[in-house]
Every structure is written in structure tokens, then in C-alpha cells.
Design goal:
Layout lengths: L5 E4 L4 H6 L1 H11 L3 E4 L7 H11 L2 E6 L2 H6 L1 H11 L3 E4 L9 H21 L2 E5 L8 E2 L2 E2 H5 L9 E3 L2 H6 L4 H5 L8 E4 L1 E2 L7 E2 L9 H9 L4 E4 L8 H20 L1
Parallel strand pairs: 1-2, 1-12, 2-3, 3-4, 4-5, 5-8, 9-12
Antiparallel strand pairs: 6-7, 10-11
Helix pairs in contact: 2-3, 2-11
Length: about 260
């Protein structure tokens, strides 16, 4: 059943979505993807996008929304989440001016305020990492670990991006462990074996995804979202490769 938990972060296909959202979604459905994760509306009415997704039976695996919107525009966000049938609002990063100890402390506080509102509405708030959060130390831990501290009074959930964990010099599997049952969505992204450690399709780079998938099946992952920030060829071709390779790994788990 893991196949029904595979989704694409639409930032990967931002150009294609701007030109032809419906056609791009049809292509994803034909490939076998079960869902998409939103990252903006491409200047269109959210209701129109929701209608396309509903007609194709593509689920919404959360919404990446700016920190400012989460803090300042929660009521509208909650309504949009309901429209798209998702429980998850994800902060995908923070402004450069807040990437310091004072800023991270403020962000954790503000995201928790939003998360508490969300809990009353059946919504969850998560944080998606890059590598810069490992550069700031707070109370003896990286800023990322500080913000995702798995304690009862911290309601901010994890959306770990495995590429950026590796890029930050951490062991992926060790880093995932504290977030058992606290990470409904995980981001899968491969790292090319080149000097730039560039983004790659799943299964053609240096990250071993089988342990990650095995861990996810036991520890509460609801969506495996593939994101490739930069594609060196057609983005649709890239996500097709990622789907094919992920499906092969999943078949080995299911068997």
C-alpha cells in the first residue's frame, strides 16, 4: 500500500504547472502518483485547482506555505486546507534575516501558536528543513533539532528532507529516529555523485532509500513526497524516473 502514499512536490514542476496545470496533473496521474504537494497556486483560483485534482483523484499531501502566511493569514490558510482536503500546512523555510538564534526561537514560538490553532481545526503544522538550520546552535543542539524538539509542549512536526540532512553532514537514519510518529510527511530527494552534490532523481544518486522506506512504514509516515529542486532535463521525465525507481523499491518491501 506504500504506492498510495507517493506524491510529488509541485515546486519540481513549477514551470509546467504555470503553463498547463490540468495537463501536468493528468500526466502525473498516468505515471501512477497518488498525490501532489502544493507550493502556490500559479495565479489561479484555488477552487479551480482543487476541482482538477478532485476530478483526477489526486490527493493533496500537504501545502507548503510561507512563514509569513502561517503567522499572519491563518484563517484563510485553514479554509484553503479544507478546500484541498489536507490536514497539513508546512513551513518550507524562513527568511534569511531570521536565520539566527533569536530568529529560530521566535519561529518556534510562532509556529507553535499556529499549530495550537490548527489542532482545534484538525490541522497540523510541520517544518521542512534545508541545510542552513544545522549552522546555528541553540541550547547545545542544531536549530533544526531545537525547532522540532519531540516534546509534549512542542507541537511543530517534522517534514525532514533527506537530501538536506545528508548535505548538512548528518547520518539520515540516525537523524530520523527522534521523529517517530511526529512526521506525517517525509521529503525524498537524491544527491548526485558529483562535486556539486546536485539534485538527482530517486535511485540514480548516492542516497540509499530502502532503509528510509522501511523506517517510514513502521513509524507513521503518511506521505512520501518527491522533490527535485533543479532538473537537468524535463521535469516530467525526472519525476517519471523517480516514480519508477521508488515503485521498484516498494515492490521489494511489499514482497
Amino acid at each position: 500500500m506504500v504506492h498510495q502514499k507517493l506524491a510529488v512536490q509541485l515546486y519540481t514542476l513549477r514551470g509546467e504547472c504555470e503553463k498547463d496545470f490540468a495537463g501536468t496533473m493528468r500526466a502525473l496521474k498516468q505515471m501512477g502518483w497518488a498525490g501532489v504537494q502544493l507550493a502556490g497556486y500559479y495565479g489561479q483560483d484555488p477552487k479551480a485547482l482543487a476541482k482538477v485534482l478532485e476530478e483526477l483523484d489526486l490527493k493533496v499531501a500537504g501545502m507548503h506555505v510561507s512563514y509569513d502566511r502561517i503567522v499572519q493569514d491563518w484563517d484563510n490558510l485553514a479554509a484553503e486546507a479544507k478546500l484541498f482536503g489536507t490536514y497539513d500546512i508546512v513551513c518550507p523555510g524562513i527568511p534569511a534575516e531570521l536565520q539566527n538564534e533569536e530568529g529560530f526561537r521566535k519561529i518556534r514560538q510562532q509556529l507553535n501558536k499556529a499549530a495550537k490553532k490548527g489542532m482545534e481545526q484538525g490541522l497540523r503544522v510541520s517544518y521542512h528543513n534545508h541545510a542552513f538550520e544545522f549552522e546555528t546552535i541553540i541550547d547545545g543542539y542544531s536549530a533544526l533539532e531545537y525547532m522540532l524538539d519531540p516534546t509534549k509542549d512542542n507541537h511543530v512536526l517534522a517534514e525532514i528532507d533527506v537530501y538536506w540532512v545528508k548535505k548538512g553532514g548528518k547520518n539520515i537514519m540516525s537523524f530520523l529516529e527522534p521523529y517517530t510518529q511526529r512526521m506525517p510527511i517525509i521529503h525524498l530527494k537524491d544527491m548526485a555523485d558529483d562535486e556539486e552534490q546536485s539534485f538527482a532523481e530517486i535511485g540514480v544518486g548516492t542516497i540509499d532509500f530502502m532503509p528510509i522506506l522501511n523506517w517510514g512504514t513502521k513509524n507513521g509516515i503518511e506521505w512520501y513526497v518527491v522533490e527535485q529542486d533543479i532538473c537537468k532535463r524535463s521535469a516530467l521525465a525526472c519525476v517519471q524516473t523517480s516514480y519508477t525507481n521508488l515503485a521498484e523499491l516498494i515492490n521489494r518491501i511489499d514482497s
